[in-house]
């Protein structure tokens, strides 16, 4: 028997209504007559339809005016992407889609409603996803904080490394300078000893001294530079920018002050013999100095010539 188009539509429409009514009973235990089933239930109905995003178009038509294709699609998707739920369950789903907190999402669904329900599964996955998102957000914030601290730490490390490199270079330079000056001082002492042995005192030939304080006199002889030039040349002090020197006569106990911001060295150029004829010497910071030796000092140097 060949059915007309309207008869065919009526047949599949009735088949669809019966399938929907049976599904409502299976899912919710509600008895709804096939003729009363609607795709867009009213507020007073005790059932609602939950559908996936991709199949929302199935609920946009009226069953009475649907096509054969629509009826077939509804029957195929029942229990897969379309299912009956309580209005409360549908409200929970819609609120969750609006990103409302779970505590405000309305009454919870019963175990019977959730059993085998893709809506319940979607709800479960969304809750799990929300938890994971919160954890990811916290982890991201913590990671950003850690990265910020790491950048600061790396910057401090680079700064300290630069300072260390600069200090190392400075230390290497100073070590080289000490070696050079030490070598020059050794050679200068030899020159000084030769002057002491063969030419006598470098400054004893002049009486041009001016008193600075008790037991301390500064040499003001204009020829003093000629006398100490060989020593300065051997020390290479004359190559140092901003170097300076003074010649003093010491006649007793004094505290000799260093020059600030400079390395200060004390050289005894000549020492008068003692009263018993013994070789002259001077006490400097607990050490005995004689011509040809020296001492470096950075704080007041206590000297005693024994005179």
TrEMBL record:
Chain segments annotated as coiled-coil in the UniProt record: 143-177
Task: For the region Disordered, give the residue spans.
Answer: 96-117
Q: Which domain of life is it from?
A: Eukaryota
Q: Where is the composition biased (Basic and acidic residues)?
A: 96-112
Swiss-Prot/TrEMBL keywords: Coiled coil
Name of protein: Uncharacterized protein
**Organism whose genome encodes this protein:** Penicillium vulpinum
